[in-house]
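step: validate -> pass
step: tokenize input -> pass
step: predict -> running
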Amino acid sequence: MEKIVEQGLLYDFYGELLTDHQRNVYEDVVFNDLSPSEIAKEQGISRQGVHDLIRRCNKILEEYEAKLHLVAKFVKIREMVGEIQSQADEYMETRDLERIEQIRRLSGEITSTL
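step: predict -> pass
step: emit ->
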């Protein structure tokens, strides 16, 4: 997964568990594309402090994911839903009942993943 997408997903799932200060700096780097110099000036800290804070935030978010696996489950379910949509489209074109069986199998996998 692309690093920026991964950071965004980790933040979406676990960002509320960061402190306000960590969230503000992390959002400025990841979502607002500000440079460490700009953030340092805005926050009244050093550039090195910004780098250290981002590294610490990434580590915290990755540790939450290692314990909870919410992002991995989300990505897996999103892929399976895409496959269900593809199978449904295929069924609409061919009326092949095997597509329905595939949809049932995938929906069962989604249910067991939750």
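step: describe -> The helical segments are 3-14, 20-30, 36-43, 47-68, 70-94, 97-113.
step: cleanup -> pass
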